[in-house]
């Protein structure tokens, strides 16, 4: 079996999933207009009731989302500002694009958020504010709480990324170290009407977790944040100012984030326009067109990357050995977002690490071809979306002088797959609905 043939199939299936959650198309499907009547899902709005229509937003996909909104609203759109990850831009007419750092916030993110909040803070009762959110919004929309500076925010982000904390835990802390997250953007926009359009990058699509829920009631608390710090044993690595802020919050000396039932949410509509499930279903359809029987394991795969990869590898070997849970030609898909606990000093991302762990698990197996890749086109701090592997990957590495097991221990999956020529590079896709994993059995 020629691996290049099946790598091409894997690529086509992956890109079909990405195309289904292309941000502009997702917005156009969710927001339609007939004259002054705007439909957002089942809700409708009379644009004639508003003096101004404004757009704000944050995330890797915010630019194409804004482009679609410019097309739908046309002459009725007044102005707007969004912040995106460096390079994730596209031509816009009325909405200004600002660029900043991700996944670690930087000074440009603070300045961009300040300018976005100028738009929000000036909104009045007769204004309609669209808020566009997608993956990366938590790091890009950054307005540190009083007493917390950029350095502290950066340290917290790095510590959490290295600790194995999941996205919900990271966002709970982000909300309580911010003046915009966890419903606080809705508080600042009140009494304007707010419509938030969301491209989900969180398992299960919980609105309060995506981009740290700036227009959604916050269910987390200062007490819970302290528990997260204790759970991961990271108090000795957290800045003193952060620990002091959490202490004051636990003692009731600081106001909590807005909660369910508060007046600021009365004029807020939140709608998910794209998700991992939508992408996986489109990928499954493409697999069927290519002649494979598709099976979706789950779109909610979380946990430690190597553990999840081990479970997937066992399923893949079962399919090849017994035809269970389905016979070849088959395609097994899964989605979600795993986490990597960094122990080494190598280069890679969770998808490349996932593929390297699978490669070790299926070593020597015939007829198993796998890809794990991020829908945003950037896996960790690398220029790859993910990596391919098959039963011969580990041996190919050995012949080239790179040891798969050693590279995995060093979290150095990028350099392994760079040597074997099995990196998937798509460039930024301007969307983000977590990861897609695909395994083919010809």
Can you tell me about this structure?
- It is built from 16 helices and 15 strands.
- It is of the alpha/beta class.
- Strands 6-5-4-7-8-9 form a 6-stranded parallel β-sheet, with helices on both faces. The chain has a 6-stranded mixed β-sheet with strand order 10-11-15-12-13-14, sandwiched between helices.
- The model has no long low-confidence stretch (mean pLDDT 95).
Could you provide a short overview of the structure?
The protein is of the alpha/beta class. The chain has 16 helices and 15 strands.
Counted beta strands: 15
Structural class: alpha/beta
Poorly predicted runs: none
The overall pLDDT average reads 95
Please report the number of helical segments. Answer: 16
Strand order of the biggest β-sheet: 6-5-4-7-8-9
Gross morphology:
globular
Q: Beta-strand level of the residues, as a percent range?
A: 15-25%
Give the % helix: 25-40%
**Largest beta-sheet details:** 6 strands, parallel
> What distance separates the N and C termini?
9 Å
**Cα gyration radius (Å):** 22 Å
């Amino acid at each position: 079996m020629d691996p290049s043939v099946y790598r091409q199939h894997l690529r086509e299936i992956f890109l079909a999933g990405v195309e289904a959650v292309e941000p502009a198309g997702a917005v156009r499907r969710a927001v339609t207009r007939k004259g002054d009547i705007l439909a957002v899902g089942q809700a409708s709005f009379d644009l004639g009731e508003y003096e101004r229509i404004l757009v704000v937003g944050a995330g890797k996909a915010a630019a194409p989302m804004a482009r679609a909104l410019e097309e739908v609203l046309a002459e009725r759109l007044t102005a707007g500002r969004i912040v995106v990850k460096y390079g994730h831009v596209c031509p816009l007419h009325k909405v200004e694009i600002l660029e900043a750092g991700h996944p670690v916030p930087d000074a440009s993110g603070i300045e961009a958020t300040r300018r976005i909040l100028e738009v929000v803070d000036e909104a009045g009762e007769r204004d309609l504010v669209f808020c566009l959110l997608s993956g990366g919004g938590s790091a890009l929309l950054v307005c540190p709480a009083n007493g917390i500076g950029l350095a502290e925010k950066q340290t917290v982000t790095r510590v959490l990324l290295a600790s194995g904390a999941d996205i919900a835990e990271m966002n709970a802390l982000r909300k309580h170290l911010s003046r915009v997250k966890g419903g606080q953007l809705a508080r600042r926009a009140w009494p304007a009407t707010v419509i938030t359009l969301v491209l989900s990058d969180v398992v299960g699509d919980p609105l309060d977790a995506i981009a740290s829920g700036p227009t959604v009631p916050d269910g987390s608390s200062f007490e819970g944040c302290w528990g997260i710090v204790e759970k991961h044993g990271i108090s000795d690595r957290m800045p003193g100012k952060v620990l002091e802020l959490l202490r004051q919050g636990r003692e009731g000396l600081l106001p909590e984030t807005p909660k369910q039932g508060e007046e600021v949410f009365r004029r807020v509509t939140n709608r998910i326009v794209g998700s991992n499930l939508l992408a996986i279903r489109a990928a499954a359809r493409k697999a069927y067109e290519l002649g494979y029987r598709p099976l979706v394991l789950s779109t909610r795969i979380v946990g430690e990357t190597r553990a999840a990869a081990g479970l997937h590898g066992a399923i893949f070997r079962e399919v090849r050995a017994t035809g269970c849970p389905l016979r070849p030609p088959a395609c097994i898909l899964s989605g979600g977002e795993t986490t990597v606990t960094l122990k080494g000093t190598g280069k890679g991302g969770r998808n490349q690490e996932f593929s390297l762990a699978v490669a070790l698990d299926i070593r020597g197996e015939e007829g198993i071809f796998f890809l794990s890749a991020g829908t945003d086109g950037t896996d960790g701090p690398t220029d790859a979306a993910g990596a391919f592997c098959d039963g011969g990957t580990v041996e190919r590495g050995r012949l080239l002088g790179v040891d798969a097991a050693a590279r995995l221990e060093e979290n150095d999956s990028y350099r392994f797959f760079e040597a074997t020529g099995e990196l998937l590079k798509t460039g930024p896709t301007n969307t983000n609905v977590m990861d897609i994993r695909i395994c083919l059995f010809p």
